[in-house]
Design brief:
By secondary structure, the chain is α+β, with helices and mostly antiparallel strands. The chain folds into 3 domains: 195 residues, Triger factor/SurA peptide-binding fold (Orthogonal Bundle), CATH 1.10.4030.10; 111 residues, Chitinase A, domain 3, CATH 3.10.50.40; 98 residues, Chitinase A, domain 3. The chain is 47% helix and 17% strand. The protein has 17 helices and 15 strands. The strands form 5 sheets. Strands 11-4-13-12 form a 4-stranded antiparallel sheet. The protein has a 4-stranded antiparallel sheet with strand order 6-9-8-7, sandwiched between helices. Helix 2 crosses helix 3. One of its GO terms (molecular function) is peptidyl-prolyl cis-trans isomerase activity. It comes from Dyadobacter sediminis. Pfam families: Rotamase. This is Peptidylprolyl isomerase.
């Protein structure tokens, strides 16, 4: 068996396709009988999983790998999961929930609102999250296993130099223009008028509940937390620390049956009713109303703050990286000094071509290297309106790869190869620790170098 670059990429791609597979499946007509095509210990691979992965490539206009390659990638993931169970590798629920919330935030950005997601899929947010939760958990376990296997692999400058010198000069890759771009993001402020309106709406609902109307029915009708609304706002039992502090503090201050005052959190405005407490857990319902970030957001303070930062940076009183770290509300880039990273490579260098975010591409098209833009509109990944200033830090000219300019890229390749070798050695040993069985119709794939396997 040889773990090549395709296989390594597939360890992640399997999960990146999760949302696409759900989307693809919505429009399909007819029902076919599914079946198990492979098994790794107690983990099964269904024919529908393989077919959906293959179909998703086609639907996106990409060249689909051979089905044998896709099956191998699925089996490798199941091997990692099976060995994680054997080795007691655990991922905390809080980590899974955080990743799931991030993915749902991406979906909200893509569809515009939770309501649009519900209408598109015909399922509540709660049901969609339930379907995806196990898959996200598997993703996190696989990632943790990969780190366990190859996370300690290191490389030296000498290894990078040796790799570069081993490439024939006429085979060195051509590197297109790349840019380094930073931004500082400030979120818009929900207007006082809109906040007052939402508070009053919830106070009216509270009064209706106090006069005898059923809280659960009001939640079903009015709550904008569509996942819990269908269950009358029921959030089930939550462990302490699971909810945002504002919500949890208000809920735990109540006695069973009591309703809270109006509570503001990062998600909007809540009216909470405590049902019961049980040890370190509590059970509550809520009605959530969200601000309209498109129509009810005031950008005055965001623009003022960015203008002030821009002036300080322009006269070199404040370094951009420091300003981003201390002020940007895009926490992911703030910790990197405001630099926007390529999600595939993890490097703060973006290829200057059609693959770049169009908003960035057209923004820097009118800028010169070193320029700092005026505040411009920005939409965050979770769909909130914001403003940002953009720093055009650097641009490289197209060139043939060389050790001086492309050391980071070459180092990434060397590190990837070394990690692949570590994974390959691990898989050789792991095959003896897990039971792998493949249906006869896929035996000719010779998955993981297995020419055949026992019947399931």
């Amino acid at each position: 068996m040889k773990i090549n670059n395709f296989m390594t990429a597939q360890l992640t791609t399997v999960f990146l396709l999760l949302f696409g597979l759900i989307s693809y499946g919505q429009g399909q007509q007819g029902v076919s009988i599914d079946k198990i095509i492979a098994r790794v210990d107690n983990h099964y691979i269904l024919n529908s999983e393989l077919e959906d992965m293959y179909a998703q490539y086609k639907a996106e206009g990409r060249t689909a790998p051979e089905k044998c390659q896709l099956l191998e990638s699925l089996i490798i993931n199941k091997m990692l999961l099976a060995k994680a169970e054997i080795d007691s590798v655990i991922v905390e629920d809080k980590e899974v929930d955080g990743e799931l919330d991030a993915k749902m935030g991406y979906m909200i950005q893509r569809f515009g609102s939770e309501k649009n997601i519900v209408e598109a899929y015909g399922k509540s947010i709660d049901n969609l999250k339930s379907e995806l939760r196990q898959q996200v958990k598997e993703q996190k376990v696989v990632e943790k296993m990969q780190r366990t296997i190859s996370g300690n692999v290191k490389i030296t400058p000498n290894e990078v130099r040796k790799f570069y010198n081993s490439i024939p000069k006429d085979s060195l890759p051509y590197i297109p223009s790349e840019v380094e771009i930073g931004h500082i993001v400030k979120l818009g402020t929900v207007t006082r008028e809109q906040k007052d309106k939402l508070r009053q709406q919830l106070l009216d609902l509270k009064q209706r509940a106090e006069k005898g109307e059923d809280f659960a029915t009001l939640a079903q009708i009015y709550s904008e937390d569509l996942g819990s609304a269908k269950n009358g706002g029921d959030l089930n039992f939550a462990k302490r620390g699971a909810m945002v502090p504002e919500f949890e503090g208000a809920a735990l201050a109540l006695k069973p049956g009591e309703m809270s005052d109006i509570v503001e959190s990062q998600f909007g405005f809540h009216l909470i009713k405590l049902i019961e407490t049980r040890g370190a857990e509590y059970h509550a319902r809520h009605i959530l109303l969200r601000p309209d970030y498109n129509k009810g957001t005031d950008m005055t303070e965001a623009i003022r703050s960015l203008d002030s930062l821009r002036k300080l940076i322009s006269v070199d009183t404040l370094k951009f990286a420091k300003a981003a770290l201390d002020n940007s509300e895009d926490k992911e880039t703030a910790e990197a000094g405001g630099l926007i990273q390529d999600r595939n490579t993890g490097l703060a260098r973006l290829t200057l071509d059609a693959s770049m975010d169009p908003a960035l591409y057209f923004a820097i098209d009118t800028m010169k290297v070193g320029d700092l833009s005026q505040p411009v509109s920005y939409r965050t990944e979770d769909g909130r309106s914001a403003m940002r200033i953009i720093w055009y830090k650097s641009k490289s000219e197209p060139h043939t790869a060389n050790l001086h300019d492309d050391y980071e890229k070459l180092a990434q390749i060397v590190l990837s190869n070394k990690r692949n070798n570590a994974l390959e050695e691990w898989f050789k040993k792991a095959q003896g620790d897990v039971f792998i069985s493949i249906e006869p119709e896929y035996r000719n794939c010779k998955v993981l170098g297995l020419a055949q396997a026992d019947d399931m």
